[in-house]
Please model this.
Amino acid sequence: MSGHSTFEPKHPALKWFESRLPLVGLIHSSFVAYPTPRNLNYWWTFGGILSLMLVCQILSGVVLVMHYTPHITLAFDSVEHIMRDVSYGWLIRYIHSNGASMFFIAVYIHMFRGLYYGSYKAPREVLWILGCIIYLLMMATAFMGYVLPWGQMSFWGATVITNLFSAFPVVGPTIVEWLWGGFSVDNATLNRFFSLHYLLPFMIAGVVVLHVWALHVVGQNNPTGVEPKSAKDTVPFTPYATIKDAFGMVCFLIFFAWFLFYIPNYLGHADNYIPANPLVTPAHIVPEWYYLPFYAMLRAVPDKLGGVLTMFGAIIVLFFVPWLDTSKVRSGVYRPLFKQFFWIWIAVCIGLGWLGSKPAEGGYVIAGRILTIYYFAHFLIILPLLGLFEKPKAVPASITEAVLGKNKGAAPASAGVSAPQTKG
Amino acid sequence: MTGSRGKETIVAATETAGTTRRDFLYIATGAMGAVGAAALVWPFISQLQPDASVLALSSTEVDLSQVAEGQMVTVKWRGKPVFVWNRTEKDIAEAKGVQLTALLDPIARNANLAADAPATDENRAGEGHEKWLVVIGICTHLGCVPIGHSGEYDGWFCPCHGSEYDTAGRVRRGPAPTNLEVPPYKFVSDTKISIG
Model:
């Protein structure tokens, strides 16, 4: 019964269609009969939550475009027009702006889950890299979206981020002028960012299709990191994973709704309600919260090019994690030392985020340097060495053994991490 | 872990032939989901309506003192052309001379009058100001803007499909089905009207 049934259309019309395009069969085998490990915990619901957020962002974004004007003289006012004049415009804009933050909360949890349970390890390297590409596309999309309201933070955020490219020797300034379509961030910049902000989500959707495809080729990882060995180790996607995912989505949407209806501007900046002024920079300019760790790294390095390379390197290094982690054991559940370093690394990421929101002076910069070095050391030194020196705990022979053993209290290590926790 | 729950379901299923507690849960959950989905869809549909800034532009004032006798001006009201025509005695006499039975559309189509008012010239022209004719300049066939002072009936001729209107804006030759609409308007003074 564990997802081994195949789709047999009964209705003649469906049979006729299925023999010409096996679409329903594909959906059935991917989301109904698809075998999922029986021990997936709630951290595994974030893939579904992310799909939901992508749909949410595209739908609300398409609606916003119906009322928005991408021109430097009109953009700011058109956003205010959405907030004040358009029927439920305030709701749809807040869905979109807070939805971006929710998207990043979910993607960070999703990535941390992958890093903890070793979901990047063979044979899931391509799956992991596709995920990293999605993350990069998300960062580009969110950055360009933040420019569109053409407030002070939009304008100066765009100026600072595009100026990163000026760090490259010789070609830097030319690249920046090319990005701007002029000699400063101006109407040409706004128009191209608007165009790309509309395009990139559909590219994300395309890579998501590849990501899900790759997932369905190699199968899902699970908290034990042991591949399913028999039909007993899996359950059909529907109803088990569907219901669990749906419940995770509902809890996540409650969390989203709390932001949306009670603190819709909490994650934004008041300065962005001031129209863009190319002649005055706001006193305290910070990026959106989801870029803060990288922003802290940028400022930690005293050299301009070095800072930029460090910042990009922090993301590039993720692509190589499948080969940097040398451990034979996949899941962090059975890696006592890795587990400790993992949580230290999480703390370092959060610490970098906090530092990114602080002014670049005194102790903040020094702390930023220490944490930046640790961030890279985790990937480039700790992960490769841990695999060589760490003595992992005994890995269960199968998922079923791990699950049934747990009920007898034989495997307390996995009890803590599989507790249902959905709030990020 | 599913053992005890599974047993419960089987017990319920055998005891209450057909309907189980689980059926109720499915329906209740589905119904809540449907209500939630509808609540979410509502703002997405509502946002397509004319917004507050559009509704705020819903009335237009026209200074009639600038329109000479025989002259027809076009003003914009809610994004649509409105013809304001200072008709000559000849135009009025021509419109009054037409029998209602000769009209393709015998209804006045005047937003300021009852929906079934007959299409007499009195019912088409300005109330108490019969030389003024105010009509929405959109052919009732497929929405083109007819050309004034033209056509066999001295009113309007629509270049798109050849509909013709007389000096009271009444359709006299198809394919347009109805007379040009008279928008809601009133005389603020003898030389000023407010449309909308």
